[in-house]
Every structure is written in structure tokens, then in C-alpha cells.
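INFO batch 0412 | record 1 of 1 | parsing
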Amino acid sequence: MPLPVQGMFLNYIRFFKMLYKEIFKVLSFFLYTLAAILCIPCVLAMYYAYLVPAAEHPQKHSVNAFFLTILCTLIAAAICHFLGRYSLGKLYSREKIATTVLLCMIVPALSALPFIFSGTLTNFFQAYFEVVSGYTTTGSTVLKAKNYDANGSEIPYQITIAGVIPTTYTFYGTVEPVVEPSTGKVLYSGINAVGKSLLFWRSMTQWLGGIGIIVLFLLVFPHLGIGGKMFYQVEAPGYLKKIAFALFKIYLFLTAMEVILLMLTNHSLPFFDALTISFSNLATGAFSIKNHNIASYNNAYTEAVVMLFMVIGSINFALYYFVSRGKIFRLFNRELFIYLVILLLGSCFVSWAIHGTSNYTWFEAIRYGSFQAVSANSTTGFFSADYDSWPYEAQTMMLILMYVGGMAGSTCGGIKIIRHYMLFKIVQYKTESIIRPEAVKVFRIGNREVDYQTQGSVLCFCVIIVSLSVIFTFLHILDGIDPETAIGMVAANINNAGLAFRMAGPTESYAFLSNYSLVLAALQMIFGRLEFYAVLAVLVPAFWNQNG
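INFO prediction complete | emitting C-alpha cells
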């Protein structure tokens, strides 16, 4: 074995020899917590199985599926607890980062089991993709109605995407329809055919992922130089845990507020729908319990409430914390101002681009255009119209807005406004230093001095996201995916946005992907949610050299 490779593996072995007990102890805690959380959809599954008439819920029940998942999770937690029983309880930065990456791999694998055990999905890679999409608050889905011929035999879909070289996709659906036993009539298909408890769990993974990313910004990302004081403007690191708990209470309050507003503005909206929409929306995710997403409700008031909370979810949650303590002046924030201006300009452009060309009135153009622009910029991914048929100008703007993203310290993805602003200031600073090399200037963002490490981190982040976007797009094209679909799909997944185009557009799903592309897409979502550095760090041999 070559010496560099041999040294790399020795570093990995040395690290695990020293720290595996600490890592397993933390893993056991989170897995026990996951088992407890799984009891919520399990109880809901029992409610629909035993207390709700079959006519009101003819979809598959998942009581056994959730019970078996809880059992598997408890066994995994017990094994981790045993392996970490002699832990000293000392968590260094390397352990926190390594544990975070492991959790992002293991938790979705266990959380996907209800889909497998219930028979809703038979391909584990598809189930894993679905749950990764949930926890990363992406909102991409593989759920698609199975296709049958007149004799009742399942047949594949065949869809051709036009282009310089047309691409034809042949694939099978993933979800069996719910059929009336006596007549054979299809009652529900696609997402609508999935059991309520599974749909609840699916949306709940997004809600958990939303609060999870806020906690990561506070407790883990500072070790990578991409979170903490710079993004949250926290003066005393000792108060981070206290702030994290306060943010969780704010998160709960905002979720409840959205549920109430949705039901007040749309009296025909069931509580279950309002709850699952709120779970996904505040986390800037896009899982819906309807086949046509928010468009299914066709209600301007519902869309307005959803749009409002897409914006709320994409604003730095630290601002809510400060405002709740009477520090209203914190709202006079440069990043917030820039973000709101970009939202306004993006909404105006998309609305203008689709007016006339899509046969919309001005009211409809503003209604649908603004919704999709906000959904893209906040990286939520909800849709209220078939934007895949819109002009290229509107679609391109949506693609750009996905990369722009919202504010740091929020639940949204993308590059984030603060990084764009810092990148602009860095270019300005470097240009001025060329023109006036004798001048001594301190690089500042507002009243804060920005050191070279933070500047380098921002520049590297932009290089990483562009490079990985190109690489992943090329890898998908090698798998036979057309370029337009590949570009939009990678943009959606790597920015945790959920809005893709062509074969992954609003009227389709990711059911057409091979297992190879499903794994690639899941990696993109995890990379994007962990802001790239966390995953890349554990791949560097130097990361494993020593403790501390």
C-alpha cells in the first residue's frame, strides 16, 4: 500500500481508537430521542387504524411499520450505548463534526424504515432519498402514482424531454393506488394514496430538520468558521445553549401561528393539512400531502399565508430572539434589508416575465410569480402553478434565486445573503487596495471586523458550491439525464430548494432516477445542509490526526 494512503488509514484508525466511545455515546442519545419521536406518528397511525372508519381512511395503515422502526432504532441506540458506556463525556470540535455527519447518514436510514415496512416504497434507496429530502428541508420527492394498463397490469412511464438530443425516460411509479374493492375504482393515487401517519412523519422530518439546522448554526458550525458569532451576532458563547432553547420555543410559536392563520383564512382547509403545511413551510421545505402541492388548494389566501411564512423561515432566527427581548433595533439589519430587496426585485421580475406569455392577468401574474420567486429565494420549494411551462427568463431567475438563498441563521439553504454581501465587500476591498496600496484599511461588515480566516471561508464556500454543482451535474449526465433536468435538479438539491425543472419539475417526481443518481442526489442534499465544510472536513486525513 502506498505510504500516503497507508498513513491516511492509520489516521482514521487512530482517531476512532481514541474517540469512538464519545461518538457512540452521543449517537445513542440521539437515537433514543429518535425512537421517542417516532412514537408520535405511531400513535397517529393507531388512531387512523383503530378509531377512524375505513371509508375515511382507506389508505395503508402503518402501525406495525412504526412499531418495527421504533424497535430497530432502540436496538441501534442500545448498541451505541454499550459501545460508548465508558465515555468520558468530553466533546471536542472534531467529535462534534464527525458525529453530526454520522447522524445525517444514520438517522435518515432509520427514519426511512416506515416507508419500507409499510410497503409504501419497496426500494430502500428511494425511501432513503425521501427522508434525506425531509431532514435537509429540501422537499424533493420520489412519490409518484404507479401506472397501469386497461388489464390492470403495471406498465412503465415513458416521457420524452425535448432538446437538441431528445431524452426518453422509462421508469415505474412508486406508489400503489387506493382502489375501491367492490368496483375497482381508483380512489386515491400518488401522494394522496399514502397513509396519513406516513405523510405526517414525512412532513415532521422537515420540521425537525428546520430546528436542527438552527441548532447546528449555534453549536457545530462555529467550529468550522461558518457560524456562531458572525452569523448570529452572539456576544457570549456561554449562552449558546440557552439561546438554542429560546429559539426552539420561537420555532414552536411560529409553527402554531401558521396553523392558526391557515385555518382562519381558509375555512375549508382541514387541520391535518394546515399542520403538515406548517411543518414543512417554516422549515423552508416543500413536502405536501397533495399531489399538486399548494396548487391543490387553489386559494389565494392560503398562498399568501404560505408565502409569508416562507419569508419568516428564511430570516435569521436570532433576530426573532432579540426582538422577543425588546431589542427592536436589531431589525435595522443590513442583511435583512438586502434580502427583502432581492425578494421584491425577484418577485417583480418573475411576475413581469410571465405576464402575457402565460396568459395570466396582472393579478394572476403577481400572485403566481411572487409565490414562485419567494419559494425559490427562500429555498422552500412549494409551487402553486406549473412553472415548468413558463418562459426561460422566469425559470432562469428562479434558478438564480435558489443559489442566492436567504439569511444565515435561518432554516433555508443557498449561499446566503451575508456571504454574497461579504463577497462583494471583499472584491471592493481588494480593488481599492490595488488602486491605493499605501492605504491601511480594516475589513468590516457593519461594525464588526472580519478576519482573514472568515474572508477565506466565504471565498472557499463559493468555490465549493460552484465546483460541486458542476461535478454533480456532469455525474448525473453520465447516468443519461438530460442537461436541463440535471442542472435544475442539482441546483434544487445542493441548495436544499426542492424546485427543479423538466423531469423533476412540478408535475413530476424523482421516481425516474436510478439508484446511482438517488445516492448522488442524497449526498447533494446532505452536503448542502451541512454547508459542505462539515462533510469535506471528515474526508481530510488531517482532521483525524489528533484529539482536541
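INFO post-check: Residues 226-237 have pLDDT under 50 and may be disordered.
INFO record closed
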